[in-house]
Amino acid sequence: MRAFDTGRVQDKLLNRLDRQERHQSFRRDRFFRYKLEEIHNRLTQALLMAKIIETEDPGTVSDAILAGLKKAARSTEFDFKFFIAPRRDLVPRPNPYSLYMTQYVLEVLVNEASVIDVYGADIDIYKLINTVIMDISMKFEKAEDEVRSQLANNKNLTQGSREYELAFDQLIRTKVGEPYKFGPEDSTRFSRASR
Q1: Separation of alpha carbons 129 and 132, rounded Å
Q2: Residue 52 region by backbone torsions, left for phi larger than 0, else alpha for psi between -120 and 50, else beta
Q3: DSSP secondary-structure letter at 77?
Q4: Quick one: which H or E segment has residue 106?
Q5: Which helix (H) or strand (E) holds 118?
Q6: Which residues, other chains included, contact 193 with Cβ-Cβ below 8 Å and sequence gap of 6+?
Q7: pLDDT of residue 50
Q8: How far apart are CA 74 and CA 114, in angstroms?
Q9: How many other CB atoms are found less than 10 A from the CB of residue 33?
Q10: Mean pLDDT value across residues 139-160
């Protein structure tokens, strides 16, 4: 009798990779939601201080960067990947939000009326943006780890349970602050239905 390969091993592997990717995406989105304002402030400051963006009106540039961050946050997965497609080979294993903001600076912000010019190579702009985002991300992950270790001491909570998630969310809010509040038109990416 012949044995047919049903592909169960490959299916399990693909499912595990898909689950891992969704989990990483969820963690990135949660980080982005909680730290959007800090990213906005530090990214604007870094781009202007490094003289990557030359402008007469820094306030307008700041508003445009915030609009780009909101656009990244509320875009669908397809729109997000489509927008970063021209730059996805810029570096191996790029940070998606850093790549998105690099593309935003090079494609959208350069056409802003108050922007005189954007200086620097694509890779230099990406490295600056990635440095800012990764610095904030490391601090956020450290805060998350502290909250997880605090919850690990509580024997009444089981990781993965609804009670654990509620306690985690409550402790993370006290540790890092409230997440960015998107208006009704802003909340397609972070709605409960899209998780």
Answers
A1: 5
A2: alpha
A3: H
A4: helix 96-107
A5: strand 115-118
A6: none
A7: 94
A8: 25
A9: 16
A10: 86
Mean pLDDT value of segment 141-169: 86
Q: Which residues pair with 117 in a beta bridge?
A: 54
How far apart, in Å, are the Cα atoms of 165 and each of 27, 39, 148, 158, 159?
13, 25, 10, 9, 8
Compute the distance between CA of residue 57 and CA of residue 64 in angstroms, rounded to an integer: 11
pLDDT, mean over the chain: 85
Other beta carbons within 10 angstroms of residue 76's beta carbon come to: 11
pLDDT grade for 2, boundaries at 50, 70 and 90? low
DSSP sequence for 5-63: ---HHHHHHHHHHHHHHHHHHHHHHHHHHHHHHHHHHHHHHHHHHTTSEEES-HHHHHH
Q: Say what the pTM is.
A: 0.78
Residue 61 clears pLDDT 70, i.e. is over it: yes
